[in-house]
Write a structure and sequence with these properties.
The chain has three helices and seven strands, in the order H-E-E-E-E-E-H-E-H-E. With 150 residues, it is an alpha+beta fold.
Length: 150
């Protein structure tokens, strides 16, 4: 009987510690681990809804791939002017990536990031690049693959 009580106590302690660790991990992902926030577009944003942009990645936060889903962010230095977009840099939420950052000029199809997206990599972003109040765009998982060398 003593052995049963001891085993039961150990199981309860183990499960409690495991649940606590998961809650802390979930809170960390939801709040991001950086001091910056993703600036979403609101309904009155005058910037284009969809743009094909070309440029060089000058900053890349890759996110987390695997059992935990967390998106990444990139800062893209545009290689030329984009009609309706007055900035020389674009900030983009991506899916997670592995591998080295692509040093070549890349072309991405991006759409406005609203903050209402349902995909896990748009909901949880581990590190956010400071966009200096410029709203973020997002790219698909397919275009996310262009950001790295396989």
């Amino acid at each position: 009987m003593k052995m049963f009580k001891l085993l039961t106590s150990l199981v309860v302690v183990f499960l409690g510690a495991n649940l606590t660790a998961q809650v802390v991990l979930d809170m960390t992902l939801s709040e991001t681990s950086s001091n910056h926030k993703i600036i979403p577009h609101d309904a009155s944003s005058p910037l284009p809804d969809t743009i094909t942009v070309k440029g060089y990645i000058i900053n890349h936060k890759k996110g987390i791939c695997g059992d935990i889903c967390a998106g990444g962010t990139i800062q893209l230095e545009l290689s030329g002017k984009v009609e309706g977009y007055p900035h020389s840099y674009m900030y983009i939420v991506t899916g997670c990536t592995t591998g080295e950052t692509n040093p070549e000029i890349i072309s991405l199809l991006v759409t406005k990031f609203t903050g209402e997206e349902k995909e896990c990599y748009y909901k949880d972003v581990v590190e956010v690049i400071n966009s200096k109040a410029i709203p973020y765009y997002k790219t698909s998982l397919l275009d996310t693959e262009k950001t790295v060398i396989k």
